Amino acid sequence: MHKGQYRFVAGFLLAPVSLYLIFVIWPYIQTIGYSLTDWKGQSQTFKFIGLDNYKALFQDDVFMQAIWHNILFLIFIPVITILLALFFAFMLNAGGRSRAGGVRGVAGSQVYKIVYFFPQVLSLAIVAVLFNAVYRSDGGGLLNGFLIKLGLVDAENPMEWLNEPNLVLWMLVIAVVWHGVGFYLVLFSAAMQSIPRDIYEAALIDGAGRNQSFFRITLPLLWDTVQTAWVYLGIVAMDMFVLVSSMTQNMGAYGGGPDHHSDVMSTVMMRNFQYFGKSGYACAMGVVMLLLTLVLSVVMLRATRRDRVEF
Amino acid sequence: MSAPIKETAAVPAQRTTGTAPARPGSERSEGVVLNAFSHGFLALWALLIVLPLLWLVLSSFKTDAQIGGSAFGWPQHWSLGVFGRAWDKGIGDYFLNTVIVLVFSVPLTMLLGSMAAYVLARYQFWGNRFLYFFFVAGAMFPVFLALVPLFFMVKRLDMLNTYQGLILVYVAYSMPFTVFFMHAFFRTLPTAVFEAAVLDGASHTRTFFQVMLPMAKPGLISVGIFNTLGQWNQFILPTVLMQPQSGDDPERYVLTQGLIQLQQQMGYASDLPVLFAGVTIAMIPMLVVYLSFQRQVQAGLTSATLK
């Protein structure tokens, strides 16, 4: 390579690499270092305390409970979202009059897609405000109002959806699923349409029914896409900061109520960092989040591994 | 081997008549039932998306007492004044702040991201693979891992609660995905055009800006949409970085942060219509942009994820 070429390469890389180093990579590395100190954030002095933060973490009931909530989210958010999205994508593509089970959409499938996808362009902050209004604890909430009309909820004593320890996580799951299904539906739908028609025709000749062609053809050929969706939903489930911090009762700051029943790792971490000022401790939580993310991605990739089908 | 040939010949005929070979009658009625069934479910979910949103917009015309009273009340008077109040209560500022940040952060993300991706995709040099993984690895780590040191880093640079601070952080955190996607895109572009440009005596920089970048336009649009939506909807970074640092430091909240702030204030002030009007204002540009570029948005977001 010529000298000029080197200069060109270096010139193009300088700005992106330095920005990325300063604001992303260096803080990542620093977090690991700070997690071994008793740093409070206000002063620049801190002591090295080894793994004490981590030991404290595993005795911190709030944080352990938060990990458990993240795990519940990690199971239910992807499963429900993917099943619903697959179901609707199949309905959109195969419910139509097409005989070969999976190519032509139902009438108006484009309109459905436009509507379903819309929540995805809204910010989670908007979703939080919307669902707070829907879940209002008096008759003015859409959910309570509707159930009162049906006679399922007593008008004198409506449900406090976000204050029920056993319900609050599910209420958050509903909001996430509402937000996400459309996106995965469009994703799956595009993948379904790219499956060549002759495969369905061949199956039809062999006497396969609609269900058989879905489970034996569509699903295996969609597997890569489902796997991608799983990873993306896993990231959503590990985060959950916006909804928990702005929809649930404050445990000091950043939601998590009632009585920490909806706390997740991100809200506990932010509370320790900004409200209690325990920076070193919060860094240890960040590291635990990273480790869990890595473990989970390995597990997910292993568990969902299939032979790739080329077509 | 002769039987399959005969059967494939039957397929087009079967398609045109619309009857399946094995069970002609049952297949057709099954289709009708399935069709009604699928339309039922599809319509139900569409209603579950649209009705709550419409209900929220409608609620901004109600009074606070009405909102607390019954979910199904109808607004008494249709006054648009509430939108003006929401704008003055902060939505206008939040809107402006978000736009100021994005006007700089999105183009800068695209420029720096494609520069890095281009060099990594098209030039052989020592450390190339390492740098590529260095960029892409960032996408795997949760942003929470960096938050605490990031806050103090931005503080040391004296950029807390400033536009330039948030812009630089947005650009940095959009790098992994932008580089990853554009890298894949630049690899697919034909080398012949590049060689022709070099033969014609264009410099490397000029080749990039005048030949390669215009060719990468479809990729740039996809990633651009992805980054615009991602940065517009970002919440955790502004929550940490955009807090007033002292009494006379003005609030520079972005829209997402501002809406949550407004939710708290209006809850205390018993003026929920203002909050709902604020949300409506925040939704309108998304709705307009989405409906006008619906195909590109869907394609951009989904292809961006699938790469």
Automatic annotation (TrEMBL), chain A:
GO terms for biological process: transmembrane transport. It is found in: Cell membrane. It is a multi-pass membrane protein. Belongs to the binding-protein-dependent transport system permease family. Residues 67-300 form the ABC transmembrane type-1 domain. Keywords: Cell membrane, Membrane, Transmembrane, Transmembrane helix, Transport. The chain crosses the membrane at residues 7-29, 67-93, 114-135, 167-187, 229-248, 279-301. The keyword Transmembrane helix applies. GO terms for cellular component: plasma membrane. The lineage of its organism: Bacteria, Bacillati, Actinomycetota, Actinomycetes, Kitasatosporales. This is ABC transporter permease.
Automatic annotation (TrEMBL), chain B:
The chain crosses the membrane at residues 36-58, 94-118, 130-154, 166-186, 272-293. GO terms for biological process: transmembrane transport. InterPro entries: MetI-like, MetI-like_sf. Residues 1-27 are annotated as: Disordered. It is a multi-pass membrane protein. Keywords: Cell membrane, Membrane, Transmembrane, Transmembrane helix, Transport. Pfam families: BPD_transp_1. This is Carbohydrate ABC transporter permease. It comes from Streptomyces pseudovenezuelae.
